[in-house]
Design goal:
globular; 35% strand; 3 helices; 6-stranded antiparallel sheet; 194 residues; alpha+beta; 10 strands
């Protein structure tokens, strides 16, 4: 019964995320890079297919429980998690995931975004939109490449691609602009990797 409920949750969540063709040219990755993090504020999460408490009970080990930055994400209604099950932090920069209360049966986030913090202050999101597992524009590898820079790779799917195998991948390079105590994540470049 528990497994069936988790499957229903995943089906509902993924049905909310339309698959967009990379060839359609309709995503933010197809437009000139422009900052969406001005001023950086955490948008409230939309309600998920299950309550945050139910998700934490079901996926406890996948959910990030204690940290200052996780508390900020949680207060905005997101369920914090470690992207790709690992901490991404260096030089005062930290990247953590926040999912709506919707996860696959394997506890992977069905709808999510990645939140960047600089010295425990929110600096912006990796994507201007909520991403969905197996959908065009979903983030993969994220690397902090310096005290003021990071990169993120995004899958580019066409309608004929399977979830495992997107047609191509792109890398977005970001700069962290610091003004006093505030930092803002700004996308500056996009390159096709394959």
């Amino acid at each position: 019964m528990r497994r069936m409920r988790a499957l229903v949750v995943m089906l509902i969540a993924t049905s909310l995320m339309p698959r967009v063709s990379a060839q359609a040219g309709t995503t933010w990755l197809d437009r000139p890079m422009a900052s969406w993090n001005q001023p950086p504020t955490i948008a409230s999460a939309q309600a998920g297919a299950e309550s945050a408490d139910a998700l934490v009970r079901r996926c406890g080990s996948s959910v990030l429980s204690t940290s200052t930055t996780a508390d900020v994400v949680r207060k905005a209604g997101w369920v914090p998690f470690l992207h790709q099950d690992r901490a991404i932090a260096r030089d005062g920069v930290e990247v953590i995931g926040g999912m709506t209360a919707a996860a696959t049966p394997g506890c992977e986030p069905a709808m999510f975004n990645l939140f960047v913090f600089v010295d425990n202050r929110f600096a912006g999101t990796i994507s201007p939109i909520v991403m969905g597992t197996g959908s065009d524009g979903v983030v993969g590898a994220v690397r902090i490449t310096g005290a003021d820079a990071l990169t993120a790779e995004f899958a580019r799917y066409t309608k004929s691609d399977t979830e495992c195998c997107p047609t191509s991948r792109v890398r977005v390079t970001y700069r962290i602009e610091r003004t006093g105590l505030q930092a803002t994540l700004v996308p500056i470049d996009i390159r096709t990797l394959r």
